[in-house]
Every structure is written in C-alpha cells, then in structure tokens.
Amino acid sequence: MDAIQCLISRRSIREYTDEPISAQEIENVVEIAQMASCWENTQPIRYVAVLDKELKNKIADDCTKKFPWNTENIHAAPALVVLCAIKGLSGFEPDGTPSTTKGTHWQSFDAGVAAAHFCLAANALELGTLIMGRYDEEKIREILSLPEEYDISAIIGVGHPAVIPAANERKPLKEVLTFR
C-alpha cells in the first residue's frame, strides 16, 4: 500500500474478526510507529500492549464505566495498546524548565503524532485501530502497574477489521485552508 492510499483508507474500526493479535504484529506496528517525529528526539512515547483477554476486559469493565461505548469497543478489539508519554520530556529543557510558553502542550502533540503513526502503520499492515480518549487513567495505571512517570495519552483498540466503514464527509477545502 502506498503512503497516500494508507492515509486515505485509514478508518476508526469498531468491528473485528475473532482472529487474535500476536505480539509480533504489535511489534511490527510499533517498530514503524517509532519513526514518528518528537520533541528534540527525546522519544518519550511508550506503548503498553494488552493481549491477555481477561486483562483487556478488566480494563474495559473497570476503567470505562462512565463511557459505555468505550467499554463495548475495548471488548470488541482483540488487543489494546495503552499509549503513554514520559512526563517532563516534550517541551522541557534538560534541567526541567519549560522550553516554550506552551508548557505540557508538546507532550500531547508528541503523543498525537505517535498515535497517528501507530494507526497508519497498523493500517499499512492490514490491521484496524480505534483511538479512545475517555477512560479512568488512574485505574488503568493501577491495573497495569504503570510507572508514575508514564502519562496515559490514549488507549487504542487493535484487531483485524471485520467491517471497514465508509469515510465520513469532510469539510470543503475552502473551509479548512486559508492562504495569506
């Protein structure tokens, strides 16, 4: 698949086949996703793959109670990746002072770039993904015994797509692009 086709064909997947996801498949995706640009090449992103069905379902049931659509989406996905950023790297000098007036903005920026690369890499390898942002971060941290310096940026369902939805309509170019 060429790059343009990969960008155009990537969708949020909510229905997966029963085929499990292997550790090797996740490694292949992360190896590609690691090429994402980041703040001063600090490489602050960490990927925590949850392949164990019971553990994944525990996260779904215990960490998304206020967001039932995420509960369903996590149950549907054969695997879950918890995308984390190490606190204090993106947008900060080595001594810990902020590099810009944006504070922790750059951490979120790096995480977003990494999530996009992860999902595009998965698409290129014929896997489907769904980025989710509504969850109980502290409960996930506890269940997975994540280090305190890991800030959970997103959770991503991963699997072999059973249904690939059509693209949603996009706003006209004249509405999203301005020339000066």
Descriptive overview:
The protein is of the alpha+beta class and 180 residues long. The protein has a single domain (3-164), classed as NADH Oxidase. 39% of the residues lie in helices and 16% in strands. It has 7 helices and 4 strands. It has helices at residues 3-9, 23-33, 53-63, 68-76, 105-124, 137-144, 173-176, and strands at residues 45-50, 79-86, 128-132, 150-159. A 4-stranded antiparallel sheet has the order 1-2-4-3, sandwiched between helices. Helix 3 packs antiparallel against helix 6 (137-144). It is globular and about 45 Å long. The mean pLDDT is 95.
Salient structural properties:
single chain, 180 residues, alpha+beta, NADH Oxidase, globular
Task: Provide a compact summary of the structure.
39% of the residues lie in helices and 16% in strands.
